[in-house]
Fold Peptidase M10 metallopeptidase domain-containing protein.
Amino acid sequence: MTIPKPLSLSILATLLFTQSSRAQVSVKMHTLTGYEDYESFAYAACEKLQVVLNSTRFKNAVRQGSFTRTNGLTSQKIWEKIMNAHEVQGPGGKDSVVDLHARIITIEQDGTRWINNCKPGSWAGTIGIDGRGDGVTAICREKLKKFYDTKDTASLAGHYMHEYMHMLGFSHPGFRKSRSAVYKIGYIARDIIRQGI
């Protein structure tokens, strides 16, 4: 039996729409270096991040968002890039899997500048850094401890989302970085968790 061309295109369009509307992504933490007592906390943040990424609330917030530093992409295309999960920095992995590698900021790897930026009350207010293209995100020990002590998995998940945006090729140099896709999408993930997924 031959399916008429208009009908076959209609079926194909329906299948593609169904697949794209049900796009699912998983979050996998491959390595945790220096996290010691905080590993289970980090995995809990990843689990919440996965739920957020697959939520309608996240999809709508990103697709309707207004961002700077978008690499020329529309909000819809940014959401699609996140859901495709094809990292351009670091070792990468499978598409549709957010591949994370995390470590603690150390003086040996990052120098005194970043250690000083991590200190509570520093002018920089640093939470972490993106690993300079190696795909390994780093977090200030002080911030991780604070998130843990206050049971703030939302902020840790938001940090992972922020750094993951760098792994997808987005940046936030210069002034008004809080308006960038990197910052705002990290905030979206954090806020959805805080409001209850």
Remarks:
- Confidence is low (pLDDT under 50) at residues 6-20.
- Strands lie at 26-33, 97-104, 128-129, 137-139.
